[in-house]
Design a protein that fits this description.
The complex is a heterodimer of chains A (about 100) and B (about 400).
Chain A: E1 21-23, E2 25-28, E3 33-34, H1 39-42, H2 50-60, H3 78-86
Chain B: E1 4-10, H1 13-16, E2 27-31, E3 34-39, E4 42-46, E5 54-56, E6 69-78, E7 83-90, E8 100-106, E9 114-118, E10 130-139, E11 143-152, E12 155-165, H2 166-171, E13 176-182, E14 189-190, E15 197-205, E16 208-215, E17 220-227, E18 254-260, E19 263-270, E20 280-287, E21 293-295, E22 305-313, E23 319-327, E24 330-339, E25 344-351, E26 367-369, E27 376-384, E28 393-401
Antiparallel strand pairs in B: 1-28, 2-3, 3-4, 4-5, 6-7, 7-8, 8-9, 10-11, 11-12, 12-13, 14-15, 15-16, 16-17, 18-19, 19-20, 20-21, 22-23, 23-24, 24-25, 26-27, 27-28
The chains are: A alpha+beta (about 100), B mainly beta (about 400).
Chain lengths: ~100, ~400
Amino acid sequence: MAKKRKKKTNPSKGARKTAPSARTTAKNAGKPVTTRAGRAALAAATGPSQEELDLRNRLKAGPRRQAGPPLGGDMPERAPMRALREEVVPDPTDPKDH
Amino acid sequence: MPLTLVQNLALGDTATSERTSTICEPTAAANDRQLMVTGNWFASTSTDGGANWTFLDPFTRFPGTAGGFCCDQVVLYNPGHRIWIWLLQYVQAGAGGNIFRLAVCREAEFGSWYYWDFAPTNLNAAWRRLWFDYPDMAFTNENLFVTFNAFLGDAWQRAVVFRFPLATLASGASLGYRWWSTTDNGSIRLCRGPGAVMYMGSHNTVSQIRVFQWADSSTTLMWANVNVRPWITGAYSAPGPGGVNWLGRLDPRITGAWVGNRTIGFMWSANRDTTHPLPYIRVVRINETTKALIDQPDIWSRISAWAYPAAAANSQGAVGISAFYGGGTRHPGHVVGVKTAAGWDTQLSRTSSHGPPDQSWGDYLSGVAHHANGTQWVASGYTLQGGTSRRNIEPRYVRFHG
């Protein structure tokens, strides 16, 4: 009778996977500034005029700056398109009028 | 129970002093009779449940700093500590850095704000040219969380997460806080809902989300990657009457996030593809414990686009949303809704009479649970009424239940 060979085991296999993690950093911002006393003296004198806000509005319009690293697969590639075709699409939603 | 709009209020010129923008970015919060709405470039409060509103000037309410008040604001009411929290973003100055201001007032002294300022250099002395943009703010049982992107000029550098103890914000004592930053993910969105763990989300790719979690009891933040059905970004378009494309500024960052009923959810605006003829809202629901994908109940239409979703869980863990709907025969409209067993129950709060001439809308909305009635939500929105000028923007405060 052949001797049963002992199965090699991987010590990490079966062990609970540890989620990636990072330490956070402690800081102190001190006490708050209170605006109750001397409020008028402390406050910024004026805000922008309506014309200045018109200009701000024009400047704010337009494409947004990219706000993160480039996303992988950012182009409509064949594989994602195929997956999209094969997806189970829920029914469309249109809102009731007020 | 069918979706019901308990309150659907427009903020008129007196409430905003006509300091409105077509990129309004409104947020709203409520404490029973006390209400507050912020947006570009106004704040407005009510002490009688919304019958009357008082304009609050974010440019002059506080002492000037950096290059002066800029734009993005977020307001929240925390019922546990009975405090209002108002975040304001300031313009870059000097070497290029800016600050954000975290203002707090107690419910019993509504309007008596005290505040702390935070600059990138508070975190790292070398970050003197960085500036904060695109805030989000939400709380757990014990902490307030704030996220920002940090830019150098127009180039994105990193995302930053702050955690502030609510008890210290309420007491006004010396504020110890914790922070963390990453260069791997941008525009990190915070989940709104009850609990002792803050969950946050950001795209890794167009088919994977990173779900971060930071427990109140921990100084360590953890994350897991979740694969989702692929989606498409690119230049968004949904021309409405007159061919006005109100989505000229839209991008796919996550704008809605919630946690409730052991479910984490994220929402963002995806572009049209082979099965969706117009831009639509991608929705993913993830098991809070295992981080396994539950389902992907997207919100889409054959006749109009959906965009800019915000989300929050109410005290029962159900999700309510605030979003925009428009294109085709419709100018952009503001919609609130709830998730039901059958899908989404949604209703327009108001539809614009015109489209934005500069083809820009957004960039975000807000939704929060209404603390006094745990089954309800409070949402912000806006539409254009009577013209195309930024002064024709009419912000909205909507309270609803499903």
